[in-house]
Amino acid sequence: MLLLLLLAIAMWKLGAVEERQRGGNSSPVLPLERGGKQRGVRRLAAVAKAAKEERERDWDMSSLLAFQDPERRHHAYSRKQKSLGLLCSNFLSLYNRDDTESIGLDDASNRLGVERRRIYDIVNVLESVGVLARKAKNQYTWKGFVGVPQVLMELKKEASKENFLNTYDPTNCAKVSDDEGDEKSINPNIESREDKLSSTSVISRLSASSKTGDNRREKSLGLLTKNFVKLFLCSNLDLISLDDAARILLGDAHNSFQMRTKVRRLYDIANVLSSMNLIEKTHHEESRKPAFRWLGIKGKLENGSAGSFNQKECRKRVFGTEITNTNLKRNKVNSLMDEKPNRKPNIQIQMQLNHDNMENDMGRNQIQQQPKQSSKGFVFGPFSPVVVPKVGDSDKSNVRRVQDWETLASSYRPQYHNQALNDLFAHYVEAWKSWYVEVAGKQPLQHFS
DNA sequence: GAATCCCGCCAGGGA
DNA sequence: TCCCTGGCGGGATTC
Q1: In this model, does residue A237 exceed pLDDT 70?
Q2: Which of A151, A401, A416, A418 could form a disulfide linkage to A130, CB 3.0–4.6 angstroms apart?
Q3: Which UniProt keywords apply (predicted)?
């Protein structure tokens, strides 16, 4: 089974490698227009789309999974394949290395196969936590994760200076907002919820500067990210839901439209922060409502031990297997990867940001490095809540899955244009056949060529 | 049906 | 005028 999985992954990678070898020449450059203007961004998107379609014709895990599930055979698209978190993970994998100095947005969008707009979202969040710094138009300086603790410390100090941790006063609950003109009281309907937050006492002024600046800037994703992070840093709350965060940051729960927009942005931010492993998505124990928890390696080791890191690492997608975000469903990946527990953990970001002793933690913050890894490597993810496979998952389903794999292996053979890749694939096939005969004790599959 | 969040329109602003 | 930037919300997808 493991070998089969490796085989599938190898084939998946081969498809991506070959695609890159084919290069952009074969990809049509479509002159898309908007407002009468031809946009390079659209061209890039078109190129990425064309490349994606070509790859999907050849081979990818989506088609593999679709094959497993007849209902999905003609429904391979999954929005999760294109999530901002996944894209951010790829972005970090791409640039999180020693020799990265500056990052061009065009280069990033090109290499990641996404339109520039998406890159803006990511760099804005990364810049807010100190991973990047803007150098010039279209250019960012890579600072890496070593600067993150310092930035977080500054955010915490800044929040303290701004009286971010004021004791909650229902009669004077100025919002934490980064919007202007909305300084109304917190909705009484959510007061009980805010009471829960009273230990955080976040209902205060977040930033004087955020109220005086230009409106557009005040609503920027970068500032919202900082405020969102401050919520975690300055509260004792274990979990914060995006609704709560939006209410606090917006301060006007009556305006459902603003709430909706704010929550949308918070989803974007949370996805990026999740992929950096700064927060993780989970649920309130009582309400089962989705919420986010601030992470630190210490907490993770205490909770899930190193095993959880391995598990997480197993779910981490390897960058370079593709140029776009077309990928398999994350949940499916998880379940598949869970069966392959021995991958070595990547380097982990050691930032325990316990709210009470953050300064001490900052002093201790170090980057643990593992051999065979990039010196700046970190574990990114998770991209979704940890899915714990049910103990005693029926053997029946396992058998069926194996049968599906076998059916797939015997009936599907991707064709690679590159002869070397074809040969390499043949090598994997031979390995599989060998294992199949020797280990599984079965007759060779007839359809294998 | 609610939650999630991708996608791209379009306005602001700088070169 | 062009192009970079990014706020914003429709609506598709997932839960």
Answers
A1: yes
A2: A151
A3: Cell cycle, DNA-binding, Nucleus, Repressor, Signal, Transcription, Transcription regulation
pLDDT of residue A327: 35
More confident residue, A58 or A143: A143
Nucleotide nearest to A77 (CA to C1'): C13
| A317-342: average pLDDT | 32
Task: Indicate the helix (H) or strand (E) that contains A163.
Answer: none
* Lowest mean pLDDT, pick from A177-191, A245-259, A335-349, A392-406: A335-349
Which residue has 């065009």 as its token pair?
A106
Strand order in the sheet with A239-240: A239-240, A290-294, A279-283
Residue nearest to nucleotide B12 (CA to C1'): A216
Regarding predicted confidence, which is higher, A334 or A119? A119
Tens of pLDDT, residues A6-54: 444 444 443 333 333 333 333 323 333 333 333 333 333 443 444 444 4
Residue A103 DSSP SS3 = strand
Assess whether A216 (CB) lies less than 7 A from strand B: yes
Strand A37-38 with A102-104, pairing? unpaired
Instruction: Look up residue A277 and give its two tokens.
Output: 């492993």
Rg over CA atoms, chain A: 24
A331 contact to strand C (CB, 7 A limit): yes
Residue type, A343: R
Find the residue closest to C5 using CA and C1' atoms.
A120
| Distance from CA(A323) to C1'(B5), angstroms, rounded | 21
pLDDT at residue A430 in the model: 63
Question: Are the C-beta atoms of A229 and A124 separated by less than 8 Å?
Answer: no
Task: Of A326, A318, A321, give the one whose Cα is nearest residue A374.
Answer: A318
Q: How many angstroms from the chain centroid is the CA of residue A394?
A: 31
CA distance A102 to A124: 15
Per-residue pLDDT band for A192 (boundaries 50, 70, 90) equals: very low
> Where would I find the beta strands (DSSP E) of A46-182?
102-104, 132-136, 139-142
Q: Name the token pair of A441.
A: 């004790």
What is the rounded (10 degree) CA torsion for A365, A371, A374, A378?
Answer: -40
Q: How confident is the prediction for chain A on average, in pLDDT?
A: 55
- Indicate the angle between helix axes A221-233 and A256-275, nearest 10 degrees: 80
> Rounded CA gap, A185 and A446, in Å?
72
What is the identity of the amino acid at A341?
A: P
Which amino acid belongs to residue A230? K
Q: What angle do CA A228, A230, A234 make, to 5 degrees?
A: 135
